[in-house]
Amino acid sequence: SCEASLAMDDPATAASTLGRLGLIHEKLGDFARAFQYHERALRAARDRGDRKLVCAVLNLTGNAYLQVGEFDRALSCYQQSLAQAREIGHPHDIGLVLQNIGLARASRDPEAAVPSLLDALRFSEEAGLSNVVVETLLTLATTLTQLGRSDEALGYATRALSMAESSGSARLAGTATAMRETLRQVSAESLPP
Length: 193
What we know:
The protein is mostly helical. The chain has helices at about 1-10, 10-25, 30-50, 50-65, 70-90, 90-110, 110-125, 130-145, 150-165, 170-190. About 90% of the residues lie in helices and about 0% in strands.
């Protein structure tokens, strides 16, 4: 069985496999099982002393908590993940977790999320993390739209599209294109006749 083979694997393989099983259960909507797998993955990563893997599992767990609306737990996971990423000095994980912290804050209080997202954007730009920059720009655009600041949002969506096209990310370019077009329509509709 899968469970038996996990017990025999080394902790890194077990943690990675358990994390993937958690993601599968998230996609299936079975969050109770997803959290069980994420917790086991976290224990296995900690047993191995693999701080990068601990960082990744905490980030995944935060994402799952965000999906079920448990914002405080999501933020707690993200903050622990950020601490690990900073300790090991891994810029990609730092940028990704900063973006997720902004996303979690935007889910609860969009206005308070804007400074967090701008910090994530600055860090990711300085670190040269193009895909994280694009994701953060899109999150900023979404958040500003929620706040009724569609002209600002359009600027961020346009930047996201330009960067996504430069980096060759078709998925991000498609998302940015759809967002930009929607924001253009919203802006045009809000103009006085």
